[in-house]
Structures are given as structure tokens and as C-alpha cells.
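Z., the sequence and structure:
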Amino acid sequence: MTEPQTFTFAVDGAIPNAALPLLVYRAAAPADAAAIERLFAANRWPPAWRDGVYPFHHFHSNAHEVLGVARGEAAVLFGGPNGTTLTIRAGDVVVVPAGVGHCARARSPDLLIVGGYPDNAPSPDQHRGVLADLARVTAAIARVDAPNADPVLGPDGPLSRLWGG
């Protein structure tokens, strides 16, 4: 079984972050968009888009998100302006808990990421971090349902254990 790296982040200004850890599975998926989409769909995280990571801080207050790197690499700042920059490469999968900020800092020209959300989640919202909204989005994050399965390893994967499910 693949054990992910874990990272937690405290509130960073207007970025609420989450008590749940960000999960990074290194070299856990094929470096192929269609194969990553099949993996996510089989594990109840329907793929929703193919693109990169926005170059500005943002987060979702109503859904968790999975990022599967199909091609290339990127340096992504997670957790807000004072967070941690991680280099993610083809084959890596990142599970971003609701509320955790993310922002691309650099990317290879060929970067392609497959993104998805749990099958029990609503359409994701997007916030850029407004201090006046912090209490409201923090309350929304607390109401987000746990995913039904780990996007990489399914119902018996480590996500449930690591997220206290």
C-alpha cells in the first residue's frame, strides 16, 4: 500500500486551511490523463477537469479536491502565502482538503493535471481568501462530508484513517 506524505496548515490570513492533512501520493498513478481519470472514477472521485493549477491563492469551502499530475511538473504553494511549496510531478496525486489554499508558483510548459471531487460532493465553489468571509467559509468547511473512498487506493486506502473517518 502506498502511504502518502501528509502536511497540515494553520489559518494563514484569509486562507482558512483545515485540520485535515493534505495528502501527497508520490508516483502513485500512471503518467497518463485517461488512466488517471479511470483511477479516480473507479475510486468515487469523478474527474471534472484537465488543466493546471491557478496562479493565485484559492480554495474550496464545500468540497475536497484531488489533483493527478498526468504530464510535466509544477511548484505549488499549499496552505496560503506562508504555506509550503511542493514540487509535484507526473504520476503524483495530491488530495487537497476543503479550505486548503493552493497556488501555482511555477510549471513546466507541458503540465497537465486531472482534477476531481468526491462523488458525494456538490459542485465546488471557489474562494480567493477574503478576511471578512473567514468565519463563514470556516463554518462551511466544517460541514463538508468525508469522501466515500481514497482516490488512489479506494475504500481501504489510507485517506479514511488519516482523515479520522
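The domain at 5-154 is CATH 2.60.120.10 (Jelly Rolls). The first helix runs from residue 33 to 42.

Let me know what you think.
H.
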